[in-house]
Known about the structure:
The protein has helices at 5-13, 15-21, 27-37, 56-59, 73-82, 117-127, 146-154, 171-178, 197-205, 208-211, 215-228; strands at 44-48, 65-69, 87-89, 103-109, 128-141, 185-190, 193-195, 236-238, 240-248. The protein is an alpha/beta fold.
Amino acid sequence: MKIHDTAAQAYAVASEAYERGRPSYPGEAVACVVDELGVGPSTTVVDLAAGTGKLTRLLVPTGARVVAVEPVTAMRTTLVAVVPGVDVVAGTAEALPLAPESVHAVTAAQAFHWFDRGEALAEIARVLGPNGGLAMLWNQRDESVPWVARLNDLMQWRTQPIPQYVDGLDWAESVAAVDAFTPLHHRQFANPHELDVESLVDRVRSTSYIANWPEPRQATLVDQVRHLVAGFPERFTLPHHTDVFWCHRR
């Protein structure tokens, strides 16, 4: 299976920290995906690079058949434990183990930046039925809050030579280049993430490139993060916004 080395190595060791520390997705964002893609009973929705099932579990109540596709064994193991009853299969966005025109909707949460965009979009178009829908979601920390901006500085966010989600990247252009989808739509939702210090540490340690750092370097960063939030209430909010993009197969 084709998967970026950084992601493969990191998520093989950080799946439990990922589950404990990563935010979920706001109800309004999930409702947008469900409504715009027509997800519901008698439909099949595929959650790509599902990780530990942060989005997967939120699709289950729609009554759709939910299939989680995840290439990393450790992530699949955690997903099966926390989202029982969902079909979980090994696979990548560029080589889906699915028949042509066999699904109604495809989602990818906190993941599409890891894919080869052209190959993944072509493969998604292959498995979607006529007018089937694609949704891409990302949670982003709100850097307009000073302590969050400092956290990103400590994490050396956006300075790493790896694929990352960037607000200004023209995702619409990438979708249009495949010539298989309608124009891309976008909405943004507030997503405050309530957590404590240990959950924040898990969030930091679950970051792909940080999970691959030597333990002494990780420990130094963790000390800096603990110092940053010293004096905060026992539970506090890490503000995010959630970007949702969607389109349909022509």
